[in-house]
Every structure is written in C-alpha cells, then in structure tokens.
Amino acid sequence: MASIMRISFSKIPAANSCKTVLTKINIQAVRTITSKLDELPPKPKPFDYKNKIFNITRYWFDKTSARFDENTKLIVVEGPLAAGKSKFAKEIADAFGMLYLPEANLDMEYINRYGFDLRKLDSQLPPDCRSFDVMDYMRNPNHKLVARMQIQQYLVRFSQYIDALAHIFSTGQGVVLDRCCYSDFVFAEAMFSRKFLSRAAYKKYYEYRDNTINELLRPHLVIYLDVPVPKVMENIQKRNISYEKNSPALTESYLETMERHYKQSYLKDMAKHAELLVYDWSLEGDMEVVIEDIESIDFNKYDYQDPQLKDWEMNKEEDYGVARYKYATRKEKLMAFSNIPDYDVPELIVGPMEADTFHKVRAAAPGAEYDYGYNANMGDTGLLFKWHAFDRSEFLPAIERRSV
Length: 404
Fold this sequence. Notes:
Layout: E1 3-4, H1 56-61, E2 74-78, H2 85-96, E3 99-101, H3 107-110, H4 134-139, H5 146-171, E4 175-178, H6 185-193, H7 199-212, E5 221-226, H8 229-239, H9 242-245, H10 252-270, E6 275-280, H11 287-295, H12 317-329, H13 331-335, E7 349-350, H14 352-363
Helix pairs in contact: 5-7, 5-12, 6-7, 6-10, 8-10
C-alpha cells in the first residue's frame, strides 16, 4: 500500500468561484508604457494586499481601475540559460518604475518566513521525502526525484505569477518577471527528450499545467533574448556556477531542445496574445534601444475582436474588481487546482510510513508550530493582543536562486 506525499502547497482548500457584484462603470484603459522619467498622473496609494483582504466593502470604496496607468503592465523576459535575463529584467523594471520579481525557484518554498531552510531536515527524512531542487537536478539528472522537482518548479512559477497579478491589481504598479510558468514546459520537454522524465511523469506534468494555466492572464509583453546554443554553453562556462558548469544535463542536445520549443511552441503561441520583442543577445545590446522599442509599442491598437491582449480587456469596474479579488484574495483557491492525484506515477509516490515521518518532521521545524507571527520561540511578540489568525503566507518571498 502506498500514499501520496503532498508535493506542492499545504494550505489548499477546495476550489470555488469568486463572487462579486456588478457596477456599470465604463473605463477606457490607457495602454502605452512610458519611462519613469515622465511624470504620470497621481493615483491612490497602493493597497497593502499582503496584510489586508480585498472584500466586498473595499470593492465599493477602493476602486481598482483608479490605480491603473500607462505602466500597469506585466512584462516577461525569456531566454536560454546564462543569457543575461536577470540583469536585463532588472534594468527594464528600473527604467519604467516597475516591480522586478526574480526567477521563481524552490528556495522560495524551502526557506520559511523565519528564514529557516527546510532542507536542513533532510537527514531526518527517508530518501524519497527529501528535498530536491534545481541544484540537485543539475548534478544528478537521472535521480528519481527529478519528476517531483519539475512539477514543484512549475507550481512555484504558477504561484509567483499569481503574486504578480495580485500586485498589479492591488497597486497599479507594473511587474517584470524573469521567466514565467507559461514557458516552463520547455524544461519538461528537454528533460523528456533526454529520458530524465518518464512518459508517465511527462504526461502528469502537463496534467498539472493544463489544470492551472488557464486561470491566469497572459502578459502584455514578452521579450526573448536569443542566444545560440554554442554561445549559451560558452556563457555557462564563463559564469562558473559549479553545478551548471559540470552538469551532465546541460548538453548541446538538451539546450537545442529547449531552444526549439521556445521558438516553435512558446513564442509562436504567445505572439497571438501578447506583444513580442526578440533580440539577438549573443553580445549584450544597448538597453536604451530596448527601452525606446518598448515605449514605441501601441498597446491600444487592438479592439475587442482581436485575440491580442484579450485577457486584459476590462470594460467595467466590476471586471477589475473580480480579477483583483481572484488573485489578491483567493490565491489558495487557485492553488487548489494543483490538487491532482499522482497514484499513476511511481516516482511521485512514497510509502505511508515515509509520508508520516515527513509530516511529523516538517511540523517540528522551527517556526512551524503555529501560524506566522504567533511563535514566541521565534521571537514573535504581542501574542495576547493579536485577535485574529490572518496570515498571507501564500505570497512567495522574492528570493534569488542560489549560485553555490
């Protein structure tokens, strides 16, 4: 007899639709991006969505559309490994006064809100229940836990994308992402091509993706940094990250498969729904030219019949309010769509005794005894004066992936 160990998130109630009310207010959204050097019209201060709930009362008095301006956009920077995406994304965010979110990674899941790294508990856990992240994968791509890692990686990207949408609708500030959940499948394809994923795990990955991805709004703009595979391999050696430099996974064939699916699948499909810019980034280009290219995009040229930017077509205040409620208040409901049985994939199953050990060890971890803010042994104070257990721990921290 075997059982499933939860491979994603612990706080997942049953999914259900969000309820809202109708307000007939016509809104014409402005869709051109301008540099932060240009003065934008004043707007309401950002809503503290990480510590407050957007509910029906706030819907009436805190209008979401009032915060939207020219720079209320979601931009995703894509490209192969070692292309310079992080630096590029940070510069774009700085130029337009947007929030930069680092590439989603499993450190965001393994390091709890008190700063304790749950990977330190691995010595107390059975082998099938131990942590396994990208660093481990690069060193041992044939490990049994690769399938679980890839699904977890997708779910972290999915979770971060929800956070990005919550930030946009709650504050009006644009967001720049370093990769996103929409392109994550290029890694699964490369893994499957090298037999690092079994066919059952490969199909299960797409089951997770298909069950969740349609809940999101596609980005306004995708920027792809094109670097040929030989140059990618050269860059990997130059940046000298040990687990990448010596990885048996990062072969020419693996990187070519990623590139092929990026260009023939991801970019081809995304171009139907978002604006797309592609740059030859073999040598780092001129960011001023990139910024000018972005500023020249007319996001307002599409009408309601065009599929381009259709996800962001909102004509009533109610449309804005529903989206804000969905992403900022009901994230756990969205994550519930990843509650998928895995009994048909052997590498995703652990025995009942191992699963019991896992949950007991995790429950005894520093900071895990009570909700965040209520652990006196972790330095939390004022416990007698806290009258509710409101905890927005579902929002991911902005942690850069480790390089060592």
